[in-house]
């Protein structure tokens, strides 16, 4: 996934706060804003939403929107 690409959150692998779940239910589409190094060999993808809320996801939690 590339910075600037639109993506949709399709699932959540880890537990997140109820506030985050509610935000994602209202609008699961955002823009890739960057990357976050994680433990091991994985890289998290930082997604920014229209309301300026941003958080990171594993790549398999997102799907590109064409």
Task: Report a brief summary of the structure.
The protein has one helix at residues 18-26; strands at residues 6-9, 29-37, 43-48, 54-57, 62-64. With 66 residues, it is mainly β. A 5-stranded antiparallel beta sheet has the order 4-3-2-1-5, with no helix packed on it.
Walk me through what this model shows.
There is one protein chain. The protein is mainly beta and 66 residues long. It has one domain. 14% of the residues lie in helices and 39% in strands. The protein has one helix at 18-26; strands at 6-9, 29-37, 43-48, 54-57, 62-64. It has a 5-stranded antiparallel beta sheet with strand order 4-3-2-1-5, with no helix packed on it. β2 and β3 form a beta hairpin. It is globular and about 30 Å long.
Helices, strands, pairings?
Elements: E1 6-9, H1 18-26, E2 29-37, E3 43-48, E4 54-57, E5 62-64
Protein name: Cytochrome B6
Pfam families: Tsr0524-like
* Fraction in beta strands: 35-45%
Count of DSSP helices? 1
Shape, please?
globular
For the sheet with most strands, the description reads: 5 strands, antiparallel
The helicity comes to 10-25%
- How many domains? The number is 1
Q: What is the H/E order?
A: EHEEEE
User: What is the arithmetic mean of pLDDT?
Assistant: 93
Report the count of strand segments. Answer: 5
Major beta sheet, strand line-up: 4-3-2-1-5
Q: Structural class, please?
A: mainly beta
Radius of gyration based on Cα positions: 11 Å
Pfam family, one: Tsr0524-like
Protein name: Cytochrome B6
């Amino acid at each position: 996934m590339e910075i600037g690409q639109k993506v949709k959150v399709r699932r959540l692998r880890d537990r997140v706060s109820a506030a985050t779940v509610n935000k994602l239910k209202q609008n699961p589409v955002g823009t890739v804003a960057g990357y976050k190094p994680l433990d091991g060999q994985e890289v998290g993808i930082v997604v920014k939403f229209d309301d300026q809320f941003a958080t990171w996801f594993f790549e398999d939690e997102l799907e590109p929107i064409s």
